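Deliverable D5.2: sample structural annotation.
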Amino acid sequence: MEIKGLTTSEAKLLQKEFGPNRISQPHSFHLLTAVLSQIFSMLNLLLIGAATFSIFIGDYADAILIFTIVVLNAAISFWQEYKAEKTLEELKKLSPTFSRVIRDGKEVMLGSEQLVPGDLVLLEVGDKIPADALVVEAVNFEANESILTGESIPVYKKTGESEHNEVYAGTLAASGRAKIKVLKIGNNTKFGRIAKGLGDIQEAETPLQKQIKKLALNLVVISVLLSGVIYSIGIALGYGRLEMFLTAISSAVAMVPEGLPSILLITMAVGVKRMAQKKAIVRKLVAIEGLGSVSILATDKTGTLTTGSMRVHQVWLNGKIFNANEFKGQLKHPFGRKIMDAMVIVNTSSLAHKFDKKSADVLGDTTEGALLLFAKLMGIDYELHRQQGKILDEFSFDQELKSMSAVWEAEGSTEALVKSAPEFLIKNSNRIAENGRVRKIAEAEKLKLTEAYQYFSKQGFRVLAFGYKDNVVRKTKYERAEVESDLILLGFVAIMDPLRPEVKAAINKSVEAGIKTIMITGDNELTALWIARNLGLAGEFDEAILGKELQKLTDEELIKVLDRVKVFARTTPEDKLRIVQTFQKNGYSVAVTGDGVNDALALKQAEIGVAMGKKGTDVAKEAADIVITDDNYATIVNAIEEGRTIYDNVFKSIRYLLSTNIGEVLAILIALILGLPAPLLPAQILWTNLVSDGLPALALAVDPKDPMAMRRAPREKNAKLLSTRVLIKLFSIGLIVALFSLSIYWYVLNTSDNLTLARTWAFTSLIFFQMIVAFIIHGKSKFNLNLLGAVIITLFIQFIILATPALHPIFEITKIW
């Protein structure tokens, strides 16, 4: 069976039993569901009710306007989400289409979806592994499992070892070759189980969504109560039932901020446009506002804080440590050139240069690729360099010895070049290259050499050692033990996945904004801590906590840990999910960033999930609310700033709408209490409400950014949109507007004894005072030219109404000059 694999008939039976090797999508975009969810939101239901009342009282123009707002709001919101979904589909990097499979004793190419348990699959460098499988044959085989574990260093695989004899769907063959036997496919794979688990997590509403829903409910209650009070007072004072019923209903409609959906939509759309220009796809409009309330930013390491590709960071040579720029000077010396020989010659990887010739992709083992990229940085063309000599023999990487070597002939001399784990080279070296000469190493000195390479290991670097043997006799066949003994130690190379250049400044900006940034990674704790400390995310004495330690903690103990720990290492997807959930239970609003399958559960659970678009997996993108197409971490922090601006502007608009609406209703209520005729008729009430909900409110929604937005603490997760203090302020503003308008109304009524004229003045003065309120709400922030234009246009429209006799019967007004 292991040689011939399955027969075609066996495979067909198994495919009927297990189905295709395909992972069910955790999220799907349903057209009808999306449309209905936009139309029947709480705020839109309130508006539909207001429009229905408007039809009842005969105000068809206002009803048509409100229905138009509802439809446009739903249509544009739906279109935004639809476009985001389509863009996301274009971004998806699909699983491999074909795999090399042994069927009927022959090697064939089959679509990966056709694989079944028991199939034998052949893997080479660069192949994406199509299923969870058992390694039955392996030749120096390593797998890159970073999308599942967060560990950027490839993991070696071999038969017989329980911890290293399985490979997983979605991971990559990093080096060597292997034959694997499929164990699990589709939803039963590790990848699939995580994707399936996403369906069990309900999407959390953003704070603004929750608050707008609550505001809509409160407005319904207040509108009904106020209309009841106005009707009762009017009847008690002897006014006609029909007249008071229409006035009460008009007042109830006036309390509804018809412009709020448009304001929310325009504000979000402006934010989405800004983010799109900065390479971010916002899948849901409300997501960008939700970022503005974030108090915890939980970030993955590999591919998010780092580039996701290995690079040479430092070189230890001649007892000194050199960075890349400093090492260039060492190429003038023979041992500097010798260590570069070892990096380039004892190397099975290659580089695929991109069209711009300035960058390259690694083909093969990422660690070996890092050595070639370092050579490229030093100005060495590895392909030309290899052509300057001849490899007489070579020994591939041995998992037990942790070494690989080559016998190299160049410029008339033959030597052995060795690359290995530091402990192997230290053990098998009896000399060291130092300061232009070779000297013997005493056994006692090997302890210092061990300390030298452990200096890098303790910082989380992957350390490789390089050595050589000179004066090797030329012959047709060499023994490995002979080639890799009695060596001359050249030095060590420290390799790490480098930090993204924009991350440190972005984290500092987050700190200023009162946002706590934590790292949750599947990588080892030494690497995680080194990165965290270099980014300013953790201090010198901060420690990391491991996933296995987290699993031993109760929820109460975990809460205490979260307050002081900033780095969580060796975590599983379930650990990440639990950390996010615990933060949320304690009142924090959490944003999670990541790119791997191991991040997907946390991305879905968080208030806002942010996935990387280039290197992110399909599952991570599906679980996220925002996808960063350029994988730039700074874009996330910019989005937080955008979110705060959006919330500020929406808050300004809501305060303006409510204060002016309160002013209208109070003017009617106070007049009735004082025994005066209602100062506004239904048509005037609805027009005044429409004007105040119009251009000025929209202009406030696009106020310029507050330069101090990222220098204040994030608002609390459960903070009220309208606190008692704010409500008192809005009521006070509304009361002042009502009293000023009523004063003019009372004065004109008493001096002219003309109720229509008095109502005309009340109608006009109320709109005028509302324009003043718009500037009061705007405050001292940067001048808003849009607001000035909106006020001028609104007042001009009112002037046209007053100056056009044909419009007077519609609004039941008269000329005032």
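Annotation notes: The radius of gyration is 35 Å. Residues 633-673 form the longest helix (41 residues).
The annotation will be released with the project's public dataset once the embargo ends.
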